[in-house]
Design brief:
The protein has 232 residues and is mainly alpha-helical. It has a domain at 94-223: ProQ/FinO domain (Fertility Inhibition Protein O, Chain: A, Domain 1, Orthogonal Bundle). It has helices spanning 2-5, 44-51, 55-65, 80-83, 91-103, 106-118, 120-123, 137-144, 150-163, 165-174, 191-231, and strands at residues 177-179, 185-188.
Length: 232
């Protein structure tokens, strides 16, 4: 009974209170909810690329950083007519023009008349009566025509030979004596001179035949062009 008479100590049990969840207050009407700032997401690949950049990217970066190369503007080329000197007539053309002026000169007419008048047996000839001229007859002519320069006399005799070359070559091919201004025989036509005259005459005929063929071809081409134009 004594134990029952003792007062028993009360046992107090403490319990932890659960935290009260406070609901997020909604923003007041008329105000927009602030948008959270977006931070760039860095991937592992980007981090590795920054640590170990590729060689191609490094070269590209160096090229883009290098200063631009200055390329001078293109200089226009000058026209050939402004730098090239005008081309004059050729030597053959000048010689031809000089020869034509000589043929039209009064000196040529006077020397030619003197040759055919004073020595008709040598210079007023036909294909049947032409004779080979003596060697050195040019000096004889110059001595007989002192009023004219030896150069003009020589050129006049050369022109006479050129005008009568075909029949003169034929006379040389026949051989026989040569003749001076007085018509007397002086020297002989050698076999070498005969062969040379024969070769020159043959080459002259070949050149003439070639020229005739070229002229015929040119005329044929011109006529075909005319016919073609008429057909069009």
């Amino acid at each position: 009974m004594a134990e029952q008479g003792k007062e028993e100590n009360p046992v107090v049990i403490l319990r932890k209170k659960r935290p009260v969840e406070v609901p997020a207050s909604s923003p007041p009407a008329g105000k927009k909810k602030p948008t959270p700032s977006l931070q760039p997401r860095t991937s592992v690949v980007n981090v590795e690329a920054k640590k170990n950049p590729s060689p191609a990217k490094s070269v590209h970066t160096e090229l883009t950083k290098s200063p631009p190369v200055h390329i001078p503007p293109a200089v226009p080329l000058e026209s050939p007519t402004s730098t090239t000197a005008p081309v004059g007539p050729s030597k053959a053309q000048r010689n031809y023009e000089r020869h034509q002026r000589f043929l039209q000169s009064p000196e040529f007419a006077q020397i030619s008349t003197a040759m055919t008048t004073r020595w008709p047996h040598l210079f007023r000839l036909t294909p049947e009566t032409i004779r080979p001229l003596a060697i050195g007859i040019t000096q004889d002519l110059c001595a007989q025509l002192p009023d004219f320069s030896p150069k003009l006399v020589h050129l006049t005799l050369r022109q006479w030979m050129a005008d009568h070359r075909v029949i003169y070559w034929k006379a040389l091919m026949l051989g026989g004596p040569r003749y001076d201004l007085d018509g007397n025989p002086r020297g002989e036509v050698t076999p070498e001179q005969q062969a040379d005259a024969r070769q020159k005459r043959k080459e002259w005929y070949l050149r003439r035949e070639e020229r005739c063929k070229q002229q015929a071809t040119t005329a044929k081409g011109a006529s075909s062009d005319v016919v073609q134009e008429g057909a069009d």
